[in-house]
Design goal:
By secondary structure, this protein is an alpha/beta fold. The protein has 10 helices and 12 strands.
């Protein structure tokens, strides 16, 4: 059964007249009659009750008419969807982001603008740590990633080693801040140096969480002459801040987390030069299939326009 046959059948069913249906289809009546006869033979049922004066739908014809209209509507919708995808107006983008990303004004503005401009594109947003996102990009289970690779020499080495595999677009640089109980002696200082934290107990992300700040903070502390004393681990930044409020210890997080205002907690910027973190948009350097690559390029271009 072909779509052409269904179109011919619908024309005859609606006109109930072979000559008028043939005129509507811009074909001759003999080819139309032959196509209907073929369709009836294929189905194994008469679709029309024909007399010299009239053409009427049989019960089988009435049932087929309902389904044929659905099939043609679906085929038309499928064709439009394919055209939209080819033009970059439809499809799916899988976008990873770190837990700090939604706290930046850029992210919310970008997602809102993208949804307005490309309403038929499905954005699948996945919260993941930086290391897990980078692995997912390499495996092509993510298309784009908002990541915070480690800042400094090790981070530069990481990016250079991955230069053939990933592209990075720098979105913003955020200072690292110390998260302190309000009554902590260091809270009286407007800025704190890492060396001032040598005797403090740290609340840290677990090593297996895949956050770059875990490795960066260890490296910064070593540069400052000490190894951080981890007294508690927590997988979520909000949990870390809550534990600081409870007096369990102190922590270091990107400054965007200071939007979480919890009673008993204050934030103080680190004065050390390397105590910063960058938010980057990453995607594969190698070309993907054309429709997917077009969606990625459009998202990157829109991101650049927001900077």
């Amino acid at each position: 059964m072909e779509l052409r046959q269904l179109r011919y059948f619908i024309a005859v069913a609606e006109e109930l007249h072979f000559t008028r249906a043939a005129q509507r289809l811009c074909i001759g009546q003999p080819p139309l009659s032959y196509a209907i006869a073929q369709l009836e033979a294929e189905i194994g049922a008469m679709l029309f009750a024909r007399t010299k004066r009239s053409v009427q739908l049989t019960e089988a014809g009435k049932l087929l008419l309902t389904e044929a209209r659905k099939i043609l509507a679906l085929s038309g919708a499928a064709a439009q969807s394919a055209k939209a995808a080819a033009a970059g107006h439809a499809g799916e983008l899988r976008i990873g982001f770190t837990s700090s990303t939604p706290l930046t004004p850029l992210f919310s503005a970008l997602i809102n603008v993208y949804r307005r401009q490309f309403p038929a594109v499905t954005l699948t947003l996945l919260e993941m740590s930086t290391q897990h996102q980078l692995a997912a990009l390499q495996q092509q289970t993510l298309d784009l990633a908002f990541v915070r690779p480690q800042f400094g020499a090790e981070q530069a080495e990481q990016e250079n080693s991955a230069a053939s595999a990933l592209h990075y677009l720098t979105l913003r640089t955020d200072p690292l801040v110390v998260v302190l109980p309000e009554q902590h002696p260091l809270a009286a200082k407007p800025q704190i140096r890492l060396a001032d934290l040598a005797t403090q107990g740290f609340i840290m992300y677990p090593p297996q969480a895949g956050t770059s700040i875990y490795r960066q903070l260890h490296a910064l502390c070593l540069q400052a002459g000490f190894t951080p004393d981890t007294v508690q681990q927590a997988a979520e930044a909000s949990t870390i801040i809550g534990l600081v409020a409870a007096g369990v210890g102190i922590s270091v997080l990107p400054a965007c987390f200071d939007r979480i205002q919890l009673a008993g907690v204050c934030y103080r910027q680190l004065a050390d030069e390397q105590a910063v973190t960058r938010l980057l948009l990453a995607h594969q350097a190698s070309e993907r299939e054309p429709q997917k690559q077009l969606l990625i390029n459009q998202f990157v271009a829109l991101t650049q326009a927001q900077l």
